User: Fold this.
Amino acid sequence: MSPDLGATYQMEQARALQALDRALAPEVGRRRRRSGRLWALSVDLAALALSGEVAFLVVPLIGLGHLPPQWAVAMPVAALAIFAARGLYAGRLQLVLLEDIRLMVGGSAVAAMAVITARVALTDASYIAAQGITQWLLLLGLVSAGRGGLHAVELRRRRRGTAFRPTLIVGAGRVGHLVAQRLLENPDLGLRPIGFLDKEPLMSPNGLPVLGASWDLERVIRERGVEQVILTFSTAPHPVMLRIARTCEELGVGCAVVPRLFESFAARLTVDYLGGLPLISVRRSDPKGWQFAVKYAIDRVVAAGLLLLLAPALLVIAGAVLTTMGRPVLFRQERVGRDGRRFKMLKFRSMHPLPEGDQDGSEPERLTPLGRVLRRASLDELPQLVNVVRGEMSLVGPRPERPELAASFSETVYRYCDRHRVKSGITGWAQVHGIGRGRHRFNPVSLANRAEWDNYYIENWSPWLDIKILILTVRALLRFRQE
Assistant:
């Protein structure tokens, strides 16, 4: 074989292998991305099928008559269809059990109402409503338990590093640095950053390498087994970024985009089209609107009820503080709340007073044994229910800060002042995620993160978000976490 023919043969062979790689990569990538959705679908199918069988057996035992088999099957089938329509089997980056349960509660309730309505219209049987509600409660309990188990297993695998998706970040600038940092800090996402693509990188953060430029995308995906690409701000022009997104689609690789003006985005978006040109409108909550007025009114009623319910425990704690530390029982400290208004925030005392003339006493050394227990269980915060009843605080909102610190942070931390658009809270979105806790809560990174999470809460507020935060707060308290 002549040298020219040999070179031509090698080139054709390389092209054939490259074509084979391109043909196989989409299927491999899509198969990996489908596996999680198939597991979710399988678990739900098993739970739904079991719910129909249990309802068929249980309904007669509790004196509600006989449940016809076709109607025992109808509700699980209707629920599965609604779950799929509401996106429960679509690919998502985050595992959020409470969001899944919320969708399941709504979807299964619609399915139950549809089946009950159909039975009333088509039959004249007795106990239709009671049978339907019983079956719905069984169905909801079983599918929620199944999803809870699936989430627990997946989270355990992700935290152990046995279930992660190699992730490539396009753009090695400030936003790319932030994305890499967040992925490294949150292994629960299951996305492990392996490096960056950028022709002119501004930095190589977090010790991750720059693996090439945009034209190296296919090579890096094949060599590194990339399963997720995140497009951040890059010096690459628009056509190049569009080509990257299309290449990811062809190769079966997930592709997510950090949008421009991401600081002003909210969860509620409206998309309109001018021809093929999308117009995205952001619908934020209004801290001055009627929704927040209703929220604060409900807060005061709930706080008053909790004070009555917890009165025996509050008296016991007050007695213990009085016995171990003397008067005063309550610690009062000036804090900054809504619109910069100052108020006296209440806590149970947990520390010995500073010795006279000592301005630098160590807080851990001043904590009493009782105070340490109160802090760990967050029981020292219970008197703030009085602040809520007075209208100075809310049950859920950004944690208040001392006036001198708030003034300093407002000058140095981006959008820190924006958190004062709403009332301060006993618990908040940042707190339940461990943002701004511990000894380093006053460093610049922690403060910026706390302001970001607090502003996310304000701009995406909904009654469900408050309920979710309260549920996460209860979970945190049951874990007896250190403040």
